[in-house]
Amino acid sequence: MTKPHERVSNAEREAAARMLADAAGAGYLTTEEFDGRVSVAYSAVTRADLDRVAAEIPSEWVRGWEKSRRRADRLVAQQASARKHLAAYIAGSGLMITIWFVVGLATGAWYPWPLWPILGWGFGVYHQTKPLRQARQLRNENSARQLGRGTAF
Could you list the residue ranges that cross the membrane (predicted)? Predict the structure, then answer.
C-alpha cells in the first residue's frame, strides 16, 4: 500500500520518466503532454506527485508496463548472477588445473582429479544458465514471429 505523502527516490523518478516515454511511444500522450509530465516527474517530491503524471493513462497499461519492468529487472539480476558464477567457475577451474599441474610435476602423480569438481560445478553453472538460454530462445522466436507479420505470401 503506497502512502501519498511518502518521499520518492531518484530511481522512482527515472522509472516514471521511462514509463511516460513508453506511454508516449504507445500513443497515449502527445509530445506536449509528455514534455510537461516528464518535467513534473523529475521535480516530484511525493508519491502523489508521481501519481499525477500517470493520470489518464489506462491503468491496465500501466500495470502491464510495471510487470514487464519487474520481469526485465529480474532478468538483468539473473544475468549478473550467472556471469559472476561463470567467472568463479572459470577461475576455480584454472586454479585446480594449476595445482594439478604443479603437483604432477613435483610428484609425478598425474591422476586428473580436477576433472570431477570441474564437471560437478559445471553441471551447476549449466543449470543456473538454462532459464536464461530459454528466455533468449523465446525472445528470438517471438522476434522472428513479429518479422513475419504483415508480409504477403
Answer: 86-111
